[in-house]
Amino acid sequence: MEAEVAPAPEGVRRRGPDPSRYACWYIAATWKDPEPTENDGLAVVVVGFGSVAAACGFLWWAANRPLARRTRLSRPHYWLLSGLGTLLPTAELISLGA
Fold it and tell me: How many structural domains does the chain have?
């Protein structure tokens, strides 16, 4: 037999079960904590490095875009020189470190 619930006070609407509580319980109850291994695959590296590389590329592009408008060079030449000016010193530093 179900217990009787007192009626809600006037002006207060009684709600049913909170769906977010059930969702949190379900996620907590079914969460799996796998053991970390050396065989996690390449996707972890691609997602981790790719997102950082994309963010850095976007910031580089956003910083160079106003400068590209002010220069006397044509747009293709500016972007080529800007890219080489970034990549050549980076490649040199990487080769010296290896």
Answer: 1
Instruction: Give pLDDT tens digits for 68-89.
Output: 889 999 999 999 999 999 999 9
| Counts of helices then strands in the chain (DSSP H, E) | 3, 0
For residue range 18-42, what is the model confidence (pLDDT) as tens digits? 666 667 767 676 666 656 666 667 7
Q: What is the largest CA-CA distance in the chain?
A: 85
Residue-number span of the structural domain to which 64 is assigned: 42-97
Using an 8 Å Cβ cutoff, are 95 and 87 in contact? no
Whether residue 3 lies inside any domain: the answer is no
Q: Does any domain span residue 48?
A: yes
37 in any annotated domain: no
- Domain-embedded: residue 32: no
Which token pair is 80? Answer: 């080529």
Name the residue among 96, 68, 62 with its Cα closest to residue 82: 68
pTM to 2 decimals? 0.51
